[in-house]
Amino acid sequence: MSYPTNNQGMIANYLPVSEFQPGHTEFACGAFATASNAWAVPYNQPARTDAQNLINWAEAEYAKTAGDNGPSNTNGASIPDMHTYFTDTQQGGVVPNALHFWDTTPSTFGIQQFPMLQIRPQISTPSRPLS
Prior knowledge:
- The chain is mainly α and 131 residues long.
- The protein has four helices and two strands, in the order βαβααα.
- It has helices at 29-38, 51-66, 79-89, 113-123; strands at residues 12-13, 41-42.
- A two-stranded antiparallel sheet has the order 1-2.
- It is globular and about 40 Å long.
């Protein structure tokens, strides 16, 4: 199955932005990922805003959950922070696309530990042990 794409091979148009903004933290990736998807449009439509509006929203969202967005802040986005970002896209205002999400019960295992506990017995053999 194939989907129509833009001239860059993407099914959506994303504004060219980066979380690496001068004078701001480089740990705002969760807010920037949320903003990038909230401002994305179908591949054949022009952007609904300019990149600066997306940057302003992402920086404000990060500061709301992390305290500030200065260059010395090294806090990443937690799951509750991401929940805040997603919910805030649904509040209307400047964000063009409300992002929808489903809450799930988190595992008591670490994110990477749980899959490995399931996979390891399947692929590890005496002649090919996993370290």
